[in-house]
Design a protein that fits this description.
The protein has 9 helices and 22 strands. The chain has helices at residues 30-40, 48-57, 110-124, 179-193, 267-277, 322-327, 377-383, 390-395, 406-414, and strands spanning 2-6, 18-24, 64-68, 71-84, 90-101, 129-132, 146-147, 150-157, 173-177, 226-232, 235-245, 248-249, 252-253, 255-264, 283-291, 310-313, 316-319, 335-342, 351-357, 362-366, 373-376, 399-401. Strands 1-2-3-4-5-6-17-7 form an 8-stranded mixed sheet. The protein has a 7-stranded mixed sheet with strand order 9-10-11-14-15-8-16, sandwiched between helices. Strands 20-19-18-21-22 form a 5-stranded mixed sheet. The chain binds acetyl coenzyme *A (ACO).
Length: 426
């Protein structure tokens, strides 16, 4: 527990001095604490089902708040995750979440204090990474978070694309099953995919409820969630979960398939699922808010312009312990560079690190050798999973090459053949 004495900085709206206290949440305080969070997001109460899920998933000992007297005016928490990194290892990662500051207390430094408190705790827990998805991208760069994954949003005009299908697509059997009954089968497929895609999270107990959450009050005119299982020789090898919004235009049926998720263990199963989703009767559009940027569908369609692809940032990542984070992944090409890292917010990371590694493993140790590249921890976070290239950051002036050749070497080594991706929010 600690106290913050604060008054508004230039441009602040409120004149009083305040003494606030940051401390760990007590389980009995959850309702009031969560209501503060909901208010900061506009006050629309979540459905009882969603609220109940997040109540169950809250790790109380990792959740904390800022109290001004008896009033909660700030919230933040973290989930204990294991995240796939390049090479297939799963590293401990703090999933930062539920961040808010009440509007009466905004822009007085409370978020900054909560972030400091949290990153100190993450370090104490020996988690090398902190990750989050942001309500606004502008918030977290100052705390050392970089954009580590992107996600593709699709709006496919399903009547205007044809698919090229691999041999064997017709051998896949599709079955519609109530989503709740199919959870175990879907989770077995999901678990087999995690290590192969950086950014995916090994499912922790309780999180399997999230992809099948379907509160009737949140459907907004859409039908119930459906699950289609894809089987080959009796084995479930893929699935898709979606709902249909039936709509009628002047020209007839004009419904939309709202895709929640699709996962497959091989191309044939994937093709069968996509063919199914793109040909649901009485629909002409398929919408997905979150697909990887290397989504195979984009290589199966006859006309990619009809897929309405838009990109946005996905996961933000911050190396909390630079040495452990960089040593915890493998590298696409041999690399031996000295990184001069700036990290004003977590000064224990500041300084020079020698990173040596290849596709088999890596080490990252303190050094006094001459630096080859200079960058801040935010750029390291952006490049860490292999999506953002160090060379692109250098072109933007955010990475400086101090030894000729070091940038190309490190940029190639940090890359990932599979696009890093976070399939769901948290
Ligand atoms: C992982 C998640 O949970 S994401 C969810 C984040 N929460 C929300 O979006 C809910 C609505 N917003 C809020 O609750 C608050 O505005 C917060 C949490 C975003 C910011 O809290 P504050 O206590 O006002 O932030 P704080 O005073 O510490 O600001 C630190 C710096 O960040 C800047 N900043 C903070 N939020 C924003 C923002 N939304 N846009 C632009 N700049 C911002 C401040 O101006 C300040 O800059 P300075 O150091 O140059 O003066």
């Amino acid at each position: 527990m600690f106290e913050i004495q604060s008054r508004p900085r230039a441009g602040g709206c409120y004149a009083w001095r305040m003494t606030t206290q940051v401390r760990t949440l007590r389980a009995a305080e959850w309702d009031g604490w969560y209501a503060t969070l909901e208010r900061a997001f506009g006050g629309a109460a979540e459905s009882p089902e969603e609220r109940g899920l997040y109540r169950d998933l809250t790790e109380v000992d990792r959740s904390f708040g800022v109290w001004d007297g008896s009033e909660v005016v700030g919230t933040a928490g973290a989930f204990t995750f294991w995240m796939a990194v390049p090479g297939g290892a799963l590293l401990p990662a703090a999933g930062v979440t539920m961040v808010s500051v009440q509007s009466t207390h905004r822009r007085r430094g409370l978020l900054t204090e909560m972030m400091r408190h949290q990153l100190t705790d993450v370090r104490r827990r020996a988690e090398p990474l902190a990750v989050l998805t942001a309500s606004e991208p502008v918030i977290y760069g100052r705390f050392g978070y970089g954009v580590a994954t992107r996600q593709a949003q699709l709006r496919v005009e399903t009547k205007r694309v044809a698919l090229t299908l691999p041999d064997g697509t017709d051998d896949v059997r599709l079955r519609i099953v109530p989503p709740a009954e199919a959870v175990a089968a879907c989770e077995r497929v999901y678990a087999r995919l995690v290590a192969g895609r950086p950014g995916m999270l090994a499912r922790q107990p309780g999180w399997e409820r999230l992809p099948v959450l379907d509160p009737p009050g949140d459907r907004a005119g859409t039908g119930e969630l459906l699950c289609v299982l894809a089987e080959v020789a009796g084995e479930v090898r893929g699935y898709a979960r979606y709902a249909v919004k039936a709509e009628w235009g002047d020209g007839g049926p004009d419904g939309t398939v709202q895709l929640r998720d699709i996962e497959a263990l091989d191309p044939v199963v994937r093709a069968a699922l996509w063919r199914y989703l793109l040909s649901v009767d009485l629909t002409s559009t398929l919408v997905s808010h979150n697909r990887p940027v290397d989504e195979p569908l984009l290589h199966m369609v006859s006309d990619v312009r009809r897929c309405g692809v838009r990109l946005r940032e996905g996961l933000f990542l911050r190396p909390v312990e630079v040495g452990a984070a960089l040593a915890g992944r493998t590298y696409a090409a041999p690399v031996d560079v000295v990184l001069d890292v700036r990290d004003a917010f977590c000064p224990w990371n500041e300084g020079r690190w020698r990173l040596s590694g290849d596709a088999k493993g890596a080490s990252c140790e303190r050094t006094t050798d001459r630096p080859d590249l200079a960058l801040s921890v935010r750029e390291l976070g952006a490049a860490y999973l292999g999506d953002t290239r160090l060379s692109a950051l250098a072109a933007a002036g955010r990475v400086r090459e101090l030894r000729p050749g070091a940038l190309a070497e490190a940029s190639e080594a940090f890359g990932s053949d599979v696009a890093p991706w976070l399939p769901h929010g948290f």
